[in-house]
Amino acid sequence: MNTNPIQGQGTSPQAWKASRRLAAVADIDGAELVPVGSRAVIISPHPDDEILGCGGLLQWLAREHRQVLLISVTDGSASHPTSSYWTPERLSIARPLESADALKRLGLPLNQMQWVHGGFPDTGVASRESELVAFLSTYLQPSDVVFTTWREDGHSDHEAVGRASLAATQARGARVHEIPVWAWHWASPEDPRIPWDRARKLPLDKWAQARKRHAIQAFASQLYSDPDTGHEPVLSAVTVERLQQPFEVVFL
Q1: Could you read off the pLDDT of 174-197 as tens digits, one per residue?
Q2: Which domain holds residue 70?
Q3: Which pTM value belongs to this model?
Q4: What is the CATH classification number for the domain harbouring 148?
Q5: Which of 125, 172, 174, 239 could connect to 157 by a Cys-Cys bridge, CB 3.0–4.6 Å?
């Protein structure tokens, strides 16, 4: 998408619950997404995208003792550009720590997974996209199943990471699935821009939903108003509610 559509409160959770297109999306289970013998690679633009988009999937991977590689492309240090409290220096420390806490809440001990920090510039990934393709390629194996943000998600970093992940997986012969995160904000319930034909739903039971909700609460820097500027949270209550459905959507 050429413009930034992430403004206002976006499409309501109630509207999505009434969506005919979303209701018609077929289910898929974890074993079909990540076959036995495959490693799951979660490529996250910012610390929190892996939980928002894949918190249920990550729980399944932990429960099944599957091999997991998490790649955090940026440190999320540009989320509060005018704040003297949430400075880039403070965020570069806080946001990865929040992710680590969230992963533990999902049942993913850090000593049982590989976690790579890319160090790419938050909000500037597109300017180094070819470098990111090469970086990702060094970590991927042909048997991997990659999960990343949708290349038309409406956030420049999400889209650049999606494109780079697709290019890297094609180069390495791996499989890639895309996860919408911000699309739930700007899209309409029957939106033809959503690739409904590629969409599948990974169902989450009430315990998986509760654990994901608990994990999302680890991201204090994103969930509360800025104590310096008074700006609204990056992740509003409505945004969080939209991402806490009884399923996660994957584009195959």
Answers
A1: 999 999 999 999 999 999 999 999
A2: 48-75+86-251
A3: 0.95
A4: 3.40.50.10320
A5: 125
